[in-house]
Amino acid sequence: MPVSTACPQSEDSSVVVEGDLDAAVALLSVRGAWDRTLRERATTTLNECLAGHPEAMILDLSGLDDARCESATTWLAARSSAAALRPSVQLALCIPADLPLADRMQRSAGQGHLPVYAKVRQARVAIASRLPSNERTTLVLASEPDSPSLARDLVTRACLTWGLQDLLHPARLVMSELVTNAIEHSGTSMRVTVSRRAAGIHLTVSDGSPVLPQMRKPARPRPGHPLDDRGRGLRVVTVTADAWGALPARTGKVVWATLQPAAKRVTGLR
Length: 270
Known about the structure:
The chain is α/β, with parallel strands linked by helices.
């Protein structure tokens, strides 16, 4: 069954998620006093974001009040979950050096497998230097009728280059629906990216609207448009992709979808 994961924001903003324009790096900020409620909220959001299989995750704990370092086991568990994915997800922590948690995580992480940085900017620079650049292709498109076709062509070139012919047609369909949805609901220019993720493919479309997509009931055909299929785009994505979701971004949002060869698909998350 496809999994839809939008990394929801908490109402009190104690756990906030933001993605970059390719959904390659997810930034999760945890703020407030560490207690059972915050632990559950942070753990749930972490798992949902890892389900989207980003290439890297940055955990910003600079606003976390945890003088007793009780959250350490949560971040070490996150490291294990990220490392277990294939390909593994890079994980980094951002904790000011003067906080007790920084020293605790430096001693517990060991051998650089869970690096700790004082600032988010430092983590971004370090992770960017380690992201593979030869297995990602990007195109900037205007909000125009021919953009879905151009995005499909980008998918075709990527699949043929990487030997992913089995994913070519479903990936073209999903990318077309994501771009069409962006044109209809954002009306802004967009950046589309196709990335190699292990044996599969990862598609993203970022646009200038902050409104995250929502599944809606298909609309009735409009007068004079008997073949109108409005409202079916995300349903097509849900049926075709192995997982999809959306993240807020600094300039709007990014919507992503992942497809894996039939032999690699799983039926659920554990």
